[in-house]
Amino acid sequence: MPVQKALDSYKCADRSQDEDDGPEDAFQSIRIPLGHPPVLFGLPGSEELMREILSHLKWRFGECAFQMFDNGEIGPKILHTVANHDVFVVIARNDAMSELNFSLMRLLLTVDALRGESPHRLTVVMPCLEYARQDRKLVAGEAIAPKLLLRCIRTAGATRVLTVDLHNQAEAAFSPTGMVLDELSSDVYLADFIKRNVTNFDEDHTVVCATNGMADILRVGFIMADRFRQQGDVKIISDSELKAVSTVIVIDDMFDTCGNLVEVCSALHLLLPKADLYGVAPHGYFSGDAGEKVKGLVQDPWSLLYRSGTDCNLQWLAVTNSVDQTAALQRLAAAGLESRIKVIEISKLLAGAIARLHLGAPVNVSKFKSLGPKDIDPATWPKRRQTSADIDPARCCGRTCFY
């Protein structure tokens, strides 16, 4: 009853004000928000990924501006009302626009500025967790960088971080008190890309040099390359007959300087000299002299430029857009490898996870993990009644329930 009386008083005030004032000065009725509207903010360098995510969600895009002072400091300013909103901040590494540590500092300042505007919840979407490889102390005096990064993000004001394919599964326990770290898997997207782009893909003549999980998804044989860093040797372990193998897919967690890739591909080429090699990873940096290393692994029958004696029949490398590949593609194009690098789109995976987090649904359930790029995702499906023409029976269970 007190709430109803308050609403009636607002209505009476609204009517009396409208009678006295003109149409331009009319008193606007008070808006009482229901729920927590979602809004997405994208930091500079993440615009392309943001556009792809919003194409699946159809949500509002938050506006923010950044001021650079003469002394090098950054000043963020939020231009969008976020009070009582469910806020998501997307950051993707983009070496073509800004240096990594500069981008992380800009993220922390933006999260702190958003927290000051009283959002309902603040989630950072970082598809590639930076500093992930510094996940343990190899010698005394070293820092555990990803654990510190997550603490900084929590101190800035975020209560959740969403990422894709951690370097080490144990890093899921690095999240500080009051923060949740959700990890998504891109295995289904990688497997779908492999089936559609590997020339003459055949389950009987293909093996995967990776984990058993990817081999099970592709229904192919399994090879493990055990690399001994101290001796520099690579030991190949297989669970199937290799005589009939014509295709080997090398899967790693990331391609950085590609030193490991060179050693593994060289060992596989010695074992299977006639097999075609393909490289796939969730994250790609291609830093340092990665271009020259990849160039030595590629066999191009139309040019003698690449035939340096280390050719390993490497056909192409594929990475997801968890890291913006603009700068990497420019460096690799300079080495003549523009046709050898492919980018796998995972914005639908991120959009589905963001929608579930907003609705309070879990993201680490088997039904969501099994969805591929061509499957219907109920969380991002258009807000209209489905018809029989909209539903592919092979990819949908036929129910309209949300999971």
UniProtKB/TrEMBL annotation:
InterPro entries in the cross-refs: Pribosyltran_N (IPR029099), PRTase-like (IPR029057), PRTase_dom (IPR000836), Rib-P_diPkinase (IPR005946)
EC top class named in words: transferase
Coiled-coil stretches: none
Annotated metabolic or biological route of this protein: Metabolic intermediate biosynthesis; 5-phospho-alpha-D-ribose 1-diphosphate biosynthesis; 5-phospho-alpha-D-ribose 1-diphosphate from D-ribose 5-phosphate (route I): step 1/1
Reactions accelerated catalytically: D-ribose 5-phosphate + ATP = 5-phospho-alpha-D-ribose 1-diphosphate + AMP + H(+)
Ribose-phosphate pyrophosphokinase N-terminal domain boundaries: 40-157
Keyword tags: ATP-binding, Kinase, Nucleotide biosynthesis, Nucleotide-binding, Transferase
EC number(s) stated in the UniProt entry for this protein: 2.7.6.1
Domain of life according to the entry: Eukaryota
Location of the region described as Disordered in the Swiss-Prot/TrEMBL record: 1-24
SUPFAM superfamilies in the cross-refs: PRTase-like
PANTHER family reported in the protein's UniProt record: RIBOSE-PHOSPHATE DIPHOSPHOKINASE FAMILY MEMBER (PTHR10210), RIBOSE-PHOSPHATE PYROPHOSPHOKINASE 2 (PTHR10210:SF32)
NCBIfam families: ribP_PPkin
Family to which the UniProt record says this protein belongs: Belongs to the ribose-phosphate pyrophosphokinase family.
Protein name as it appears in the record: ribose-phosphate diphosphokinase
Annotated source species: Durusdinium trenchii
Lineage: Eukaryota, Sar, Alveolata, Dinophyceae, Suessiales
